[in-house]
Amino acid sequence: MYDVLVIGGGNAALCAALMAREAGASVLMLESAPRAWRGGNSQHTRNLRCMHDAPQDVLVDAYPEEEYWQDLLKVTGGLTDEKLARLAIRASSNCRPWMQKHGVRFQPPLSGALHVARTNAFFMGGGKALVNAYYRSAEAMGVKVLYETPVDAIELDEGRFAAARSGERRFEARACVLAAGGFESNREWLREAWGQNDAGEWPADNFLIRGTRFNQGVLLKYMIDAGADVIGDPSQSHCVAIDARAPLYDGGICTRIDCVSLGVVVNRDAERFYDEGEDFWPKRYAIWGRLVAGQPGQIGYSIIDAKAVGRFMPPVFPGTVAGSLPELADKLGLPREQFMRTLSDYNAACRVGTFDHTALDDCHTEGLAPAKTHWARPIDTAPFYGYPLRPGITFTYLGLKVDEHAAVHFGGRPSDNLFVAGEMMAGNVLGKGYTAGVGMSIGTAFGRIAGTRAAAAALEAKQGKHHAAA
Ligand SMILES: Cc1cc2nc3c(=O)[nH]c(=O)nc-3n(C[C@H](O)[C@H](O)[C@H](O)COP(=O)(O)OP(=O)(O)OC[C@H]3O[C@@H](n4cnc5c(N)ncnc54)[C@H](O)[C@@H]3O)c2cc1C
């Protein structure tokens, strides 16, 4: 029998497995994906949000605990557990040497992401390289990994873990860490969570999933049905506007459309519906998925002109190009008259001051609803471009309630050998909203805690048996 069973194969699972192994436990990991697709959503990541009081290799200036906490408080609107949030924040200040020991390398951000040079440490080679480094290290340390092993049931004995089942196979262990992600890849569950809108549409049918197809929420559902304490709202998730032409799964970061703040966004009726210049794009990009989800047909179109080109990270799919605005409307299949009315009204309302995309500048509209409060310049210079937008789900926030030891709770009581980490519990810290890089901070902090605790529980159980036998 293994000491610790880790279920999942992404960042949280790997952090747990490595810590448990370092603590002297024998470890078995069960990953539902085949080897080529291992690593869950973690393989798509780029960076980790890190607290630091002074410059640290790739991180400039300082990003103190209080500022990090305030940022989190703001985006979650208070839907966060301060104790657990501060724990994750503090852990982000000292986890990087451990990550480096296991082969993770960091680099300064590339030019398109300079605004996060202070707050976020970027992984050299992205999340794929991070995941590969952790697997290499885990295997070298003797962690056993079984791929294509989706766990579908957990045997519990009054809140204690006994075994996990994958079809006919049964895996016993002295302790267990659940790190099997959220339920974002489960389209049926998303449909149920989002429900029907007033127009009779099922908005989630038009969502795309930015990450892995393997986070089906099977374990989360199993644990909820088994009476584990739950946190979070199933309809809350990190949801951004991505290119409507992206694949259903695993499009990753290159399907993001980052030109929204440089132009206007219209719905399929060719009407604007939100202030595109409300705040810096990195702070605002996570609200646009939900905004597009609220539009008829769950589709939007980001419209820019030649002046915007070169000012944003080019998307992977080329935009629809036209020499005139009416031609662009036709090519995008938008009602031409309304499109021209929307664009003319917007162009006429622009009060251009000193355009500066790196500051909340003074280019705004006047007398227009909704207003565009920054970076408002007329869309008047050919060629014109349009990019179709769909809601892209990053990850869901419904999860299992934990304490600072990452223990799964049943009726308010912590299990003494069952732990949970990563997306499966991120809702304790992120009730809603998002700030870039915090997903990996939470997964790394709680993955490491869960692994350490699981090893301690397993070794204690082993010693207990020893004593009983002696
Ligand atoms: C495109 C994209 C970009 C992102 N960029 C960032 C970023 O730069 N910074 C950041 O902090 N966050 C980012 N995130 C969020 C981040 O990916 C998650 O917060 C983090 O990876 C969660 O880690 P995890 O280990 O909990 O889940 P995952 O990495 O998703 O791992 C879950 C694992 O569980 C496995 N699994 C699922 N069900 C079962 C089962 N029943 N049995 C066995 N195994 C199972 C899956 O195969 C997978 O390996 C991004 C997400 C996406 C989609």
Features:
FAD/NAD(P)-binding domain; 2 domains; eight-stranded mixed β-sheet; 12 helices; 21 strands; elongated; binds flavin-adenine dinucleotide
Topology:
Blueprint (H helix, E strand, L loop, with lengths): L1 E6 L3 H12 L4 E4 L16 E3 L15 H12 L5 H10 L4 H6 L4 E2 L12 E4 L2 H15 L3 E3 L6 E5 L2 E7 L2 E10 L8 H8 L13 E2 L8 H8 L4 E2 L5 E7 L20 E4 L13 H4 L3 H6 L6 E5 L15 E3 L2 H8 L3 H14 E2 L12 E2 L18 E13 L2 E2 L6 E4 L2 E8 L17 H32 L1
Helix pairs in contact: 1-5, 1-12, 2-3, 3-12, 10-11
The structure holds flavin-adenine dinucleotide.
What does this protein structure show overall?
This protein is of the alpha+beta class and about 475 residues long. The protein folds into 2 domains: about 1-180 and about 215-235 and about 395-470, FAD/NAD(P)-binding domain, CATH 3.50.50; about 240-390, Flavocytochrome C3, Chain A, domain 1, CATH 3.90.700. Helix content is about 30%, strand content about 20%. The protein is built from 12 helices and 21 strands. The chain has helices at about 10-20, 65-75, 80-90, 95-100, 125-140, 185-195, 220-225, 280-285, 290-295, 325-330, 335-350, 440-470; strands spanning about 1-5, 25-30, 45-50, 105, 120-125, 145, 155, 160-165, 170-180, 210, 230, 235-245, 265, 300-305, 320, 350, 365, 385-395, 400, 405-410, 415-420. The strands form 5 sheets. Strands 1, 2, 6, 7, 8, 9, 20 and 21 form an 8-stranded mixed sheet that branches. Strands 10, 12, 13, 14, 15 and 18 form a 6-stranded mixed sheet that branches. A 3-stranded antiparallel sheet has the order 3-5-4. Helix 1 packs parallel to helix 5. The protein is elongated, with a radius of gyration of 24 Å. The site of flavin-adenine dinucleotide has 44 residues, from helix 1, strand 3, helix 7, strand 18 and helix 12.
